């Protein structure tokens, strides 16, 4: 799975994002835990 930096204009730091089942999700990089599904 590929993790990408969240663009600065979204004001989210310390997380990455990836695509799961065609939906973007925020991921905590240390644990690889999904913290939010983006609608």
Q: Work out the radius of gyration.
A: 9 Å
Secondary-structure-derived class: mainly beta
Low-pLDDT stretches are: none
Q: Give the fraction of residues assigned to helices.
A: under 10%
For the terminal residues, how far apart are their CA atoms? 20 Å
Instruction: Give the CA-based shape.
Output: globular
Main sheet strand line-up: 1-2-3-4
> How many H/I helices?
0
Number of beta strands = 4
> Could you give a short account of the major beta sheet?
4 strands, antiparallel
Beta-strand percentage range: over 45%
Tell me the series of helices and strands, N- to C-terminal: EEEE
Oligomer: single chain
The overall pLDDT, averaged over residues, is: 94
Task: Please describe the structure with a list of short key phrases separated by commas or semicolons.
0% helix, 39 residues, single chain, mainly beta, 4 strands, 4-stranded antiparallel sheet
